[in-house]
Amino acid sequence: MDRMSEIARGSLFAAAVCLLATPAAAQLHDHLKCYKVKDPSSFSATVDLRPADGATFDVDAGCTIKVRSRQVCFPVGKSLVTSTSPHLDINGQELANAFLCYKARCPASPGPVSLQMSDQFGTRTLAGLRTSTVCAPAIVGAPPVTTTTTTTLPGGTLRDCVDATPPNCDGTCNNMNLACVEQLGACVCSYYEFQPCGTLAGAPACWGLCDGTNSCLDVSGACQCGFAFE
């Protein structure tokens, strides 16, 4: 065997070793696989939707959500086997949590008449844009139980939300997901998409959410979380 043949065989062997030593790229879980579901819940919520892309979409204020999920979605990785569509190398971010999706309706607001979008299946122009669905981050199972300590509060019995007097709805809902707000001349506990104390209404009304038994209170003209007693 001549010298050139030995060099060629050595080069091929080195290339094969390099290929075997190259680790396979981890698959990106940037897609969502969604299942239709039957949800026993029957609630409603009013929310404001603030898009991350403010240049394309405006804030949708006063949207109503029917809190009965229509789909549950989980992150998946996709391996394209065959397709009759164009294929573009477009990837998203690694996703970790699940989503529950709900039917939503928003008041008419100015927005793009059409929108050119691209994904792994090509580029096309979409028309007829309107809000129809909102998906919220979710977890499988119940949230973890946290251990709390019992504390004796000074001042007596905490005022319940229904016992507060509008417009100062300063009672507690005893639930960090609910805010004590005025509705039809009464103070009621209502879901408000985790709006912090003072963002729904400033002093003296001070509507908004506080943790646990805390209430959103007017303290010297400013809204703060604290305890309201009878």
Q: Strands, helices and their partners?
A:
Elements: H1 3-21, E1 31-36, E2 43-49, E3 60-76, E4 98-105, E5 114-119, E6 122-127, E7 133-138, E8 178-183, E9 186-191, E10 215-219, E11 222-226
Antiparallel strand pairs: 1-3, 2-3, 3-4, 4-7, 5-6, 8-9, 10-11
What does this structure look like?
With 230 residues, this protein is mainly beta. It has two domains: 28-138, no CATH class; 161-226, no CATH class. It contains one helix and eleven strands. The chain has one helix spanning 3-21; strands at 31-36, 43-49, 60-76, 98-105, 114-119, 122-127, 133-138, 178-183, 186-191, 215-219, 222-226. Strand 10 (215-219) and strand 11 form a beta hairpin. The longest helix is centred in the N-terminal third of the chain and has 19 residues, at 3-21. It is elongated, with a radius of gyration of 27 Å.
